[in-house]
Amino acid sequence: MANDAGNFASDPHSADPKKEIVVAYPYEHNISSFDYSSDDAEGDFPTQEERRTLRRVPDKIPWMVYTVAFIELVERFSFYGTIIAYTNFVQQPLPDGSRTGAGGADGQSGALNMGQRASTGITTFNSFWVYVIPLFGAYVADVHWGRFKTICIALAVAILGHIILVISAIPDIITHPKASLPTFIIGLVLMGLGTGSFKPNISPLIVEQVSNRRMSIKVLPSGERVIVDPTATQSRVYHYFYLFINFGAITGVLGMTYSEKYLGYWITFLLPTGLILLCPILLWFCRNRYVRTPPQGSVLGKAFRIFLFANKGRWSLNPLKTYRNLHDGTFWEVVKPSYLGPNRRPSWMTFDDQWVMRLLVALLLALCSLYNNFTSQAAVMNLGGIPNDLIPFLDPVIIMVLIPFCDLLVYPTLRKAKIRFTPIRKITIGFFMGSLAMVWAAVIQVYIYKTSICGNYASDVLPAELGGDGLEYCPPINLTVWAQTGAYVLIGISEIFASITSLEYAFSKAPVNMRSLVMAFAMLMSGIASAIGEGFSSLSTDPLLVWNYGSMAVLSFLGGVGFWFTFRKLDIEEDDLNMLPAGNINLTSASETQSMESTEMSDLERASAPRQGSKAT
């Protein structure tokens, strides 16, 4: 199959390995780059009828994608394997006679003996830090360094943080808390700075290695004509990227929990450090084969100005009038350069209509991720019934099982049946799956309350009237573990449909020079959602657990309904949005924007025109 995208993105497979591959995107779907005059049907852009009737399949995934996924796996192993030890390291005392902090089979591991309040404060700060820093990492990537260079520098900072954490836990330091604590804090801050700058850039980088960014016709060996769809390819890449993330996280947590208990903290911090050192080595060997997007300047100011300009004249003291003005269907139309014309266009408006449309979709998606992440965070936080030491592992294990199942069975079956399972539909179903998970948990909790001898206080101490001494807890009921894990299966399905698809959608719809920023903003929304979820912690105790799960079920269901009715128009326009040019933006002057060729066509316009010189198969 001919690859017509070579004019705007070099193919990492065919490139000279000694030549750096750098991508500059004046238009991501630049029509002039594509050869529509080929006599061979394979490789042709599909017509509207073909897009409606032909089955869609993903393209082959370049091997460079797997190197980026491995880097993310290692980074997640190192991050989660390290932070899992923070709580006991700060809260618990150093075991008697120990110089490593290891508690052994029957003891409690610890080091600084600062208590629960200090431990909670430090871990809460770390969570806040790694949610906020991505905004900085995205900014320097989009404006100054580019994604690849930012990732390299971020890893260097994270490695430095890891090394300092190891120093804080070596035997001669850990036995002196006044020396160990400040060293630990410095390491924590540096590791968070590196990790936070790494995260918003790695997910755009992985999909940028897929060079073909337009639909094309392909004839299979069976003779079937199919559409090779870039969105299906991106979906597959992000699904397995998410699998690598979860595998790295769960192995890091399992391995370092064991290491903390039996080997001590300096080994626990050293093992992730040694593993993450593989990342810069792999990046160096692959540096000339990666597709790399150069920095394209700051667009935050222009995005903010667009929003203010769109609101101009729409606000009134009359709330009803304000609502009508904001929902009259012209909010985003009036900020398109084509609407204003060259004479009325402000000097800062140095972009085209396509860039405005991609900005709109990116902003809407980032905001909706607040509700999506809120449901997911609250659900996982509040689910009960499973032993505490299994909770961190159950969700990622289920996700790792379900991802190949969806990619190899569910999605191909739907494509063969010509059922369009678009991103908007996936996310909507993700909300409903989250709601079903909470309903499942509520039903199980009602059963627990009805069958427990303690009634609605099933997880409390055994009351005196039942022979309790104030120390003994209520005996557990006889309930199979499979009944309890059903909610986690539904949460896993919800996360696959909603969270993974959000990553995919953010990449494919956001402006090229805002992809890292959109990812960072989505991570910030995840942090806000987690904080809001903490507000429901007062319901996470007997006898309010049924109300807890019930309220989450209602919120998730309403979130799904609201999401669908808000974004259903984007679902109808899915193909049109995918075929939009990336948009052009000139950060220094308006002259280039005002002189744009009026004859430039999008893929959609070209596809609507009669195909010249192509053979029907």
Automatic annotation (TrEMBL):
Primary location group: membrane
Q: What PANTHER family does UniProt report for this protein, alphabetically?
A: OLIGOPEPTIDE TRANSPORTER-RELATED
Ranges for the region named Disordered are 591-617
One cellular component term (GO) for this entry is: plasma membrane
Bias (Low complexity) occurs at: 591-601
State the protein's name.
Answer: Peptide transporter PTR2
MF terms from GO for this chain are: dipeptide transmembrane transporter activity
Matches recorded under InterPro entries: MFS_trans_sf, POT_fam
What is the species of this protein?
Lachnellula cervina
UniProtKB keywords: Membrane, Transmembrane, Transmembrane helix, Transport
Which residue spans traverse the membrane? Answer: 122-141, 153-174, 180-198, 240-259, 265-286, 355-374, 394-414, 426-448, 487-507, 514-533, 545-567
Where does it reside? Membrane
Concerning SUPFAM superfamilies, the annotation shows:
MFS general substrate transporter
Q: How does it sit in the membrane?
A: Multi-pass membrane protein
Protein family according to the UniProt entry:
Belongs to the major facilitator superfamily. Proton-dependent oligopeptide transporter (POT/PTR) (TC 2.A.17) family.
